[in-house]
């Protein structure tokens, strides 16, 4: 019996070895380890054995079973691994083929610029205010120290709807409205972005509709050096830490003193080039100390309160920052233009 | 204002500074310099030549053979100019000269005859055509007889002058004169100023015996001075004057006109010369015009006047439109011998009105409009008399006939050093302020830190403290202001909830694949009335149009963002960009009046337009075009992100596809629409199938819940039941869904359509719609019985309301 078992073991192990699929392996398992398998058959004949032989043979039979089962398991793992490998090999794809495109969109360049500027001033404690695009003559002009017949009204030729209603020529009326609402009771620190309109023929540098952001800070003890400090921070964050600013005198009816702010030209670093018309400086915005008449009209006592205001054109800033050569690109909405500015 | 550096040198010493540096200093301290240009260019080897002989060229009719003395030698030169003549002094470019445009002058033979140089026109010397005096426009330039033969022409013709172009702001009209600029430069450089004298030799004869002045509109004309000059010989003005005028951008005409222009530029005071013999009377009467009165102005146009126009009359009829333009009848001509010279102060508003109305902006009207210096009116007249005496051989009569109610006094402005420093954030001393006032040539009295400043009348812009603050600041130098940050107002800045929401919506739609557009608010009248959302159209009375549009294209305020957006889409299609997905957040303008008398209501709308392919994967041959459900899917996700519940209801909208358009509702409130553009409209705009939406964004902002509250993650499992119903094909899924929701009870948390089928195995005219129902109770596990009860209730309700049968 011993020999019988050993022969069976040898035979079974050979069959396991020869098996090339899980199915064949399963057949081997059933054939040798099943209830009707030869090992079981051998054990059935155990009754004929002596008391001393029985445990020896029993042990041997279990050992053979164990060996065969182990061989099957290990062979099974090997076959499974090979089959998985085969499956994975078959599943291989060409990862260099293009991916499935998803529809992509993005903000308009002007929105990006406006939001960037908003965030920058929000960081300096400003709030964002908006107002109507169709304004009254009063808020657009008179409340800003531009009475009817003022020669400076020529500076901003206006689309009138009636004698008293017009397309706003700047977003300053929002400031006038806000101050009027607060009635001189507390400080105001705000910027107002929005669309504005002027009687201009559209060309590469003019647009009858464009964007403006104006800022206002009215409080006790506001100094012109504060204006310079705030604008310097704005310029450095917007155009780069190495930009310098300079103020030079200008005129706006609603500020006195009035200045224009230039930044040092990024292209030539102030040396002078064609971009800055050889001056080394590029005009960015207008600003000034709020005219006492404007404060008074809005209910602020100019003896007690002072303030500064500034105004800039995101269209122009976008053109400078991104080298856009024609303002009309912003309003034509050519998808090829818009998409260029969707990257962060 | 064009400022000739050479002219300016007559008043201030600027030799120590380069024109470039001067321009930079002027820009930084007061007035923006727009450009710095050479009047022409320095030329070498071009000298004054005397034409000793001038004969016809033997072989060419139109050429002349000239012998020209150029000092050390006489050159034979062939000249084709029609105005060349013997005895002239001309500009000769000798061999070796290089003229503008790199034109080298060499010895040459012209039609067999030697020519050793060229006789030049001003244009050939680099002077712009429009400044060249008319008599020399088509030929060579002829010098006055006293020009010295052999002299280099560069200096004589002021060719190397540099012109500073000032971009003047409206407040700095003082710099509309050479003297004003001189004061500015003197202040910047801290150099003395030399003022010109105006002393002429008055004759015995008195002006008042020949001219009287009467002003009937003293408010519009507070000063009128009439000078009378006789024995005038109209001719050419001196070369230096012509040079200066050309440099300043004015074409020389004759000595009388040139002198008035010269004085206008020097003093900023416009003058007018009448031919005294044609004046028609001996009295000047200034009054407002009579309604309908006419005058033929210098440009030979007949102008019909109204009572708002100020006129100079001879007591009977107008002879000039005050401050704007003279009359043709009294114009100075070559024959003029006596000139009545007007030096007056006209009110700016009156002049502005007339110049604007008749479109007659001129050097003169511009200056009156901005306000001339009262203290220079009479002086300018005197200076002109002096020049007429010197350069037109005139005799100036004694005295001035004048009307004078002009205010000459200087305005007083008090400033305090401490206040100046408080406003500027500086630490300027009393001494520095005194020094700044001295540089500006402002008179003042000082008492410690208090300065009483007498603002000179040439500086009409200085009225209040802040004006002086600006003067001090700019002369002190803005570069010297410190950089500080506001000390007070520690308020936190930020966006309002609504502004944040706007950004959220933008980012959401961009993430969903839409690109933001910015279109014009002003559109055509036609487009303004197209594709208006029904809830907007309902209240609408009329469109709002500009009173005076620049073009029809941008004449009317939009009532929908879509028409201009569709035009943008078409623009892209025309450029082979066929896949476009746009959105815009912008205002529309609704007027509820027949005739606009108030600001229209501005409503924020969220609109979009999509066309072409939406999802593609080329190498897998996948292509999905934009359709209604792409748009609806985007909107549903958007509304979901805003926690607002919006219903889509099939309705018709003008301009939209009748079967593929839904109106949107929040509760009962209509908030816009979505759908496909009507094929006819698509054709009008040159579009392919295009799907759009237009939503009342203001209302979304209004109903949006502020903060989403945390609902917790469900702790108990949900139960899903599917239900497939067969209904008539006309029954809408939304209607069934509403019934399910109502009948299913509170436990039904979500209902989703997962299949719609029509065709084989179904009776014609029927369709099957399958829904997944999600049951959940946040507080416990549901039992089969309660789900089953709800399910049965749903079956009964849909059978009752939609004749729906369970699909077998
Ligand atoms: Zn540069």
Show the helix and strand layout.
The complex is a heterodimer of chains A (344) and B (808).
Chain A lengths: L1 H17 L3 H12 L4 H7 L8 H38 L18 H14 L4 E2 L5 E3 H4 L24 E3 L4 H11 L5 E10 L11 E12 L3 H16 L5 E8 L2 E10 L16 E10 L1 H6 L7 E8 L1 H9 L6 H4 L2 H6 L4
Parallel strand pairs in A: 1-4
Antiparallel strand pairs in A: 2-3, 4-5, 5-9, 6-7, 7-8, 8-9
Chain B lengths: L1 E3 H4 L10 H11 L2 E7 L7 E12 L2 E10 L4 E6 L9 E5 L4 E2 L3 E2 L3 E3 L2 E3 L2 E2 L22 E2 L9 H4 L5 E6 L10 H12 L12 E5 L5 E4 L7 E8 L8 H9 L7 H13 L3 E5 L7 E6 L5 E3 L5 E3 L5 E4 L4 E4 L3 E2 L12 E7 L2 H10 L5 H8 L3 H18 L3 E4 L2 E4 L6 E6 H8 L5 H10 L3 E5 L2 E6 L9 H12 L20 H15 L3 E2 L5 E2 L1 H4 L5 H6 L16 E2 L4 H13 L5 E11 L10 E11 L1 E5 L4 E4 L2 H14 L5 E4 L5 E11 L2 E9 L1 H6 L5 E7 H7 L15 E10 L4 H12 L3 E10 L8 E10 L8 H19 L2 E2 L2
Parallel strand pairs in B: 14-25, 15-18, 30-33
Antiparallel strand pairs in B: 1-13, 2-13, 3-4, 3-6, 4-5, 6-11, 6-12, 7-8, 9-10, 16-24, 16-25, 16-26, 17-24, 18-21, 19-20, 21-22, 22-23, 27-29, 28-29, 31-32, 33-34, 34-40, 35-36, 37-38, 38-39, 39-40, 41-43, 41-44, 42-43
Helix pairs in contact in B: 5-6, 6-9, 7-8, 11-12, 20-21
Bound molecules: zinc ion (ZN).
The site of zinc ion (ZN) has 8 residues of chain A, from loops.
Note down, in words, how this protein is organized:
Chain A: It is found in: Cytoplasm. Chain A: GO terms for molecular function: ATP binding; catalytic activity, acting on a protein; magnesium ion binding; phenylalanine-tRNA ligase activity; transferase activity; tRNA binding. Chain A: Its cofactor is Mg(2+). Chain A: InterPro entries: aa-tRNA-synth_II, aa-tRNA-synth_II/BPL/LPL, Phe-tRNA-synth_IIc_asu, Phe-tRNA_ligase_II_N, Phe_tRNA_ligase_alpha1_bac, Phenylalanyl-tRNA_Synthase, tRNA-bd_arm. The complex is a heterodimer of chains A (344) and B (808). With 344 residues, chain A is of the alpha+beta class. Chain A has 2 domains: 2-91; 109-340, 2-Layer Sandwich (BirA Bifunctional Protein, domain 2). Chain A is 42% helix and 19% strand. Chain A has helices spanning 2-18, 22-33, 38-44, 53-90, 109-122, 137-140, 172-182, 224-239, 292-297, 314-322, 329-332, 335-340; strands spanning 127-128, 134-136, 165-167, 188-197, 209-220, 245-252, 255-264, 281-290, 305-312. In chain A, a hairpin with a 2-residue loop joins strand 6 and strand 7. The radius of gyration of chain A is 43 Å and the shape is rod-shaped. The relative contact order of chain A is 0.10. Chain B has 6 domains: 2-39 and 162-189, Phenylalanyl-tRNA Synthetase, Chain B, domain 1, CATH 3.30.56.10; 44-156, OB fold (Dihydrolipoamide Acetyltransferase, E2P) (Beta Barrel), CATH 2.40.50.140; 202-404, Phenylalanyl-tRNA Synthetase, Chain B, domain 3 (3-Layer(bba) Sandwich); 411-478, Phenylalanyl-tRNA Synthetase, Chain B, domain 1, CATH 3.30.56.10; 497-703, BirA Bifunctional Protein, domain 2, CATH 3.30.930.10; 719-806, Alpha-Beta Plaits (2-Layer Sandwich), CATH 3.30.70. In chain B, strand 37 (647-650) and strand 38 (656-666) form a beta hairpin. In chain B, helix 7 packs antiparallel against helix 8 and helix 20 crosses helix 21 (784-802). The longest helix of chain B is centred in the last third of the chain and has 19 residues, at 784-802. The mean pLDDT of chain B is 92. The structure holds zinc ion.
